[in-house]
Amino acid sequence: MKLPKSLVVVASLDLIQDWQLSYVEGMERAGNQVKLIFLQDATIGFYFLRNNQHFHYLMDEIKNFFSTP
To answer: What are the Alpha/beta hydrolase fold-3 domain coordinates in residue numbering (predicted)?
Structure first.
């Protein structure tokens, strides 16, 4: 089943990152376009705190993701 392109963000310190990475692999095997952003040393919920480098990087990546076809 073809789905719209997806953006998956994985924090390296998230305890369920293996499930998230498996999801990405499955989507790619099914022929879907997936962009994976793996953030080293990021904790779960890092995007709630605007005072870290991961937050600003992610916001830029989201803007780029939605502005490209």
So the answer is: 2-47
Burial 37-55 (b: 16+ CB within 10 A, else e): bebeebeeebbeeeeeebb
- Give the separation between CA 69 and CA 51, rounded to whole angstroms: 30
How far is the C-alpha of 8 from the C-alpha of 17, rounded, in Å?
11
Q: Which amino acid is at 38?
A: F
Q: What single string gives the DSSP state of each residue in 24-48?
A: HHHHHHTT--EEEEEETTPPTTGGG
Contact 29, 59 (CB under 8 A): no
Query: What is the radius of gyration, based on Cα positions, of the chain?
Result: 13
pLDDT in tens, 25-54: 999 999 999 999 999 999 888 888 788 899
Q: Where are the domains of the chain?
A: 6-67
